[in-house]
Amino acid sequence: MKAALAGLLAGVLLNLPLSAASGAPPTFHAAIAPVIYRECSPCHHAGGSGPFPLVSYRDVKGHARQIADVVRRRYMPPWLPEHGYGDFADERRLSDAQMRLIEDWVKAGSPEGDPSAGPAPPQFSTGWELGTPDLVIRASRRYLVPSSGPDVFWNFILSPSIGHTRYVKAVEIRPGNARLVHHANLLIDRNRSARVNEKEPGAGFPGMDLSIESAVADPESHFLFWKPGSVPYEQPKGLSWRLDPGNDLVLNVHLQPSGRPEPVQPSIGLYFTDVPPDRYPILIQLEHDGALQIPAGAPDFLVGDDFTLPLDVNVLAVYPHAHYLGKLLEGYATLPGGKRKWLVRVPAWDLNWQAVYRYREPVFLPKGTVLSMRYHYDNSASNPRNPNRPPKEVHGGNQSTDEMGHLWLQVLPVGTKDQRMILEEAMFRRRLQKYPADFSAHFNLGGLLLSRKDAAAAIPYLKDAVRIEPDQPAARNTLGAALESEGEWDEAIGQFRAALRSQPRYWNARYNLANALARQGLIDEAIEEFRQVAEANPGDAAAREHFMEALRESGDAYAARGDFAKAAGRYADLAKLKPGDADLRNSLGTLYARAGDLPRAIEAFQAALAIDPSHQGARLNLKMARQMAH
Amino acid sequence: MIYAADMGAPRRATMFSACALLLCTLYAAAAPPPTNLRGESVDLFSSNAKARVLVFVRSDCPISNRYAPELKRIYTEYQKEGVEFWLVYADKAETPATISKHLQEYDFGWPALRDPGYTLVKRSHATVTPEAAVFNASGALVYHGRIDDQYVDFGKSRLRAGKHDLESAIAATLAGKPVAEPATRAIGCYLADLE
Predict the structure, then answer these.
(1) Minimal CA–CA distance to A265: which of A422, A143, A170, A371?
(2) Shortest CA distance to B115 belongs to which of B135, B129, B134?
(3) Cα separation, A454 vs B164, whole angstroms
(4) CB contact B89 to A (< 8 Å)
(5) Residue A591: is its pLDDT beyond 90?
(6) B116 in A contact zone (CB under 8 Å)
(7) Is there a contact between B129 and B57 (Cβ–Cβ < 8 Å)?
(8) Which position among A42, A98, A351, A524 has the lowest Cβ density within 10 Å, counted as fewest Cβ atoms?
(9) ipTM for this prediction
(10) Is B154 on the interface with A (CB under 8 A)?
(11) What pLDDT does residue A175 have?
């Protein structure tokens, strides 16, 4: 505060001789309008997110003193990063000269000047900025923001209806009521894992931050972010992202009550491309929420994290995030030679204006570079935003009264191959260092090693994960899969059964169990498991195929042992799954005949002939069966 | 003219206070009086209210809008105690139609005045919206400033207000006690300069 005041005084003093020197005062059209149109009007226009328009001379004059004051304090335009600590595209920041110009103009009585001396006022589209989207998804229900009270953090689940996989090159987020929405984050939910948070489908759910399951082979890779005044961003070629049928998109929205109850119903527009991605960025997260145990009253509590890059990368964008106690947020890289390169520095953190910042040019960082975050928190009573009065000890967590310290970086590994797994492995190992008893660190690292076909290395991590959370079915299932590939079939079966005890409808685990049982020759048990999987998932072709294989194997085994009645039972099941197979019905008839059930044998041969009248075997068999029946 | 009398005429007029009185009279004569939404001039100091509360607002100020529910609460609480409440729109660009719509949308529940001549602005020492002024029964300004301490600066607010300055000033005035902190700094949107 003191530093700001001193700066302000210095500015005024410096400014005096300058304004005295320049003869005529600046006028709106010639001097002020170019600044306002570029820096203010994109939000401050009719229908925009700003509370009042700043486009015409009357608009600007009516708020002239306010404008001079808020730009001098750098409250407007809102822009958190410190200039010179990272070079960002779309930096919204007035130069000192522009600030002085506005001040001089206000002091001179805000003269209008000659309209022809300045640019024409900007036009703002009321529709989609990138043209008509290929797909528009609107939240199925409105959320009613109450008239007063603390800010609201609400999540809308959007379910795109697409028949096949699409590649998305741009998303435009329309918050529905721009004046209430402070920012919005769109997350891809491939497993529809967020739906469990809804009280009923479509209801949405509260929460400031959310964690969403994602596959190791397909980690989060893009920031899909909206803030007031942001222009939708089209991904360069090769950096599109995949959207599969059945994926959900979760829109996390920060809303501020306006004084009257107002509904919000956001929508998003998706723009597709035929070009699938061939470059694979990934989001790296630095954090140490586990160390966020901020004592009541602490005015400067520090939390840090460091991460060593296992390969060369280009950093595309950065997203610093903390809650209400965040004060000074720093992110930097220490190059292998020891030189520091700033990634971002936020000297006065303000949750309300958080944003994703995209670098003007990608920032190259070589392998061995250490990424660091150093976040400072003020949990004293003199932090007006402190949610607790008097202050109390605050811990890491998702609620707005909890605290958080995340530095997200979008990086693109250098090279043509998909190298995300190398980065992920390093990230999981780092997490394991920070949280030696953490379930997800063990589980993710084990899962990654297994997907790299290194089951032997995966098993110890997965066993630890199971030990930490014995009822977590996914860990049991993954451990089972790893044991299976090491030939530990019995142990694998035990893990699959344990997974199914905590979650009977866990079809992946049941499918794995069935396969393992079949592999162990427990074919009848396998069939019962396959039957459940196939019946519950009619679209699962692999389950159906394995189910049929098992039925055939079991049928043949019974037949080899001379138990033709049981063999026929298996083939009858098989025939139901393959309605157009004449051979199968011919074999089924033969089994019935050998079991002595001639009426059924005749029926089966007739069925074969109905499908294929030219089936010679069936015709012959039918004839023989009829003779035997007489 | 009217206001000079309401200021509480000094019994022993010294040179100094007589001069102040004169200036005040001249000024009041020059500025247009506040009006209600029908355009009729309103003398809000002629009633026998125990206290009068003015809150300056503007329809495009997000901070004053956010105070609508709190202002309604204060109104409900103290109107029955004999306190009069007025919302004051000082910007001359705010037409009666804009104001009516604003009152309805935000459900303030208060009667409104226009003060394009800044008569009340000056008398209340108001500079921003929302800013409150409390006058006692004899028309003396006993409090002016913020409604509460929720806003600390532009973009800096508490989750909940801790000090309810306007409410305390009203309560003190009703109790015939002096207001503990008679002037505070309000955070909000500047009232435009008079042209």
Answers:
(1) A143
(2) B129
(3) 65
(4) no
(5) yes
(6) no
(7) yes
(8) A524
(9) 0.80
(10) yes
(11) 86
